[in-house]
């Protein structure tokens, strides 16, 4: 366990790490910027329960009062959820400034990976990752999440990426940077709300044991970087591609018309898509996070069993 001066590991998470028991990291931007209150808090707490039910200890990650937190109390989760987008969305470039100022920050996939790795947590569950945005050929808008996956040895279990992004370019970027993209029970990259995207993943795997073995081998080979596990949304919650893609195209057009850029782009697009599809996309979003939490917990358990 790492005793970083800025890092606070909750007693429960510290105890699990000390005993070499499975732990799963969870991000907090999905709470503050990814879903409305109170569904965000309800979802975050339920996700923690699902991880426990599947044999692992949850560690929700955030920056609170400048402290890098691995493991939040329910009160801290409630606080972040209520604050919503008033909390800074913290990526790699924000981490030191927020910590130095004693400020709060909701961690993205990037900063959740960084803090998980500092704490000694290897598996992380979320909804969707950031990626290469449509039009990145000229805007150069590429999420820091991809760079982090290239460098930090954490397995990220997600439901693929939303087609607010250019999924083809996202895969190209990951290939260049040496990040394996695994499809769980599928050969195709899932597109968050839908199980298919038309793009192939690098490898298909069908059990938590298989995921754990690949990740463990990467560590034994001393390879830097993480592994991206893409887990399709359960069939019964998947959305009609025509409906969701129409909403996404509309959201992207509005972002462009309003000149939205930088860190505001992804939260803007997420909120617009939600607005345009009513509650349906929120329901799907919540269910796929639950599904990823289950797989991440089982994989964290398998990793410890193989150790
Ligand atoms: N995509 C989603 N839901 C999310 C995010 C992305 O479908 O909640 C959040 C995650 O925290 C992700 C971040 O790490 O947005 C990426 O932001 P950006 O594109 O600005 O790097
Ligand atoms: Mn960006």
Give a description of the structure.
Strands 1, 2, 3, 4, 5, 6, 7, 8, 9, 10 and 11 form an eleven-stranded mixed sheet that branches. This protein has two domains: 1-121, Indigoidine synthase domain (Indigoidine synthase fold, 3-Layer(aba) Sandwich); 128-307, Indigoidine synthase fold (3-Layer(aba) Sandwich), CATH 3.40.1790. It has helices at residues 11-18, 29-32, 39-53, 74-83, 95-101, 109-119, 136-139, 144-151, 167-176, 208-220, 241-257, 265-277, 280-306, and strands spanning 7-9, 23-26, 57-64, 67-70, 89-90, 105-107, 123-125, 155-158, 181-184, 203-205, 227-230. The model has no long low-confidence stretch (mean pLDDT 97). It is of the alpha/beta class. Residues 27, 29-30, 34, 108-109, 127-130, 143-145, 162, 192, 263, 266, 270 line the site of pseudouridine-5'-monophosphate.
User: Quaternary status of these chains?
Assistant: single chain
Main sheet characteristics: 11 strands, mixed
Overall shape: it is: globular
Helical proportion, percent range: 40-55%
How far apart the termini lie comes to: 16 Å
Number of strands: 11
The fold-level CATH name of the largest domain is Indigoidine synthase fold
Structural class: alpha/beta
Low-confidence segments: none
Average the pLDDT over all residues and give the rounded result: 97
């Amino acid at each position: 366990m790492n005793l970083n001066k800025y890092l606070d590991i909750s007693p429960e998470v510290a105890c699990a790490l000390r005993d070499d028991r499975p732990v799963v990291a969870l991000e907090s931007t999905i709470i503050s910027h990814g879903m409305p209150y109170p569904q965000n808090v309800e979802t975050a707490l339920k996700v923690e329960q699902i991880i426990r039910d599947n044999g692992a200890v949850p560690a929700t990650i955030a920056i609170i009062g400048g402290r890098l937190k691995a493991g939040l109390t329910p009160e801290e989760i409630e606080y972040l959820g209520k604050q919503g987008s008033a909390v800074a969305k913290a990526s790699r470039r924000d981490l030191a400034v927020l910590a130095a100022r004693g400020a709060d920050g909701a961690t993205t996939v990037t900063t959740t990976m960084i803090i998980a790795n500092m704490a000694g947590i290897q598996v992380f569950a979320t909804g969707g990752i950031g990626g290469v945005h449509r039009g990145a050929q000229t805007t150069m808008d590429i999420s820091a999440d991809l760079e982090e996956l290239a460098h930090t040895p954490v397995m990220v279990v997600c439901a693929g990426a939303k087609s607010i992004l250019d999924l083809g370019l996202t895969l190209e970027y990951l290939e260049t940077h040496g990040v394996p993209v695994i499809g769980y029970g599928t050969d195709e990259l899932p597109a968050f709300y839908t199980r298919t995207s038309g793009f192939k993943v690098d490898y298909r795997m069908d059990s938590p044991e298989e995921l754990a073995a690949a990740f463990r081998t990467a560590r034994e080979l001393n390879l830097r970087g993480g592994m991206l596990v893409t887990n399709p949304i359960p069939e019964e919650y998947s959305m009609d591609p025509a409906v969701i893609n129409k909403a996404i195209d509309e959201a992207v057009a509005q972002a462009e018309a309003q000149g939205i850029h930088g860190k505001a782009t992804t939260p803007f697009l997420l909120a617009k898509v939600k607005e345009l599809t009513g509650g349906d996309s929120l329901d799907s979003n919540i269910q796929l996070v639950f599904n990823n939490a289950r797989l991440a917990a089982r994989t964290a358990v398998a990793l410890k069993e193989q150790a």
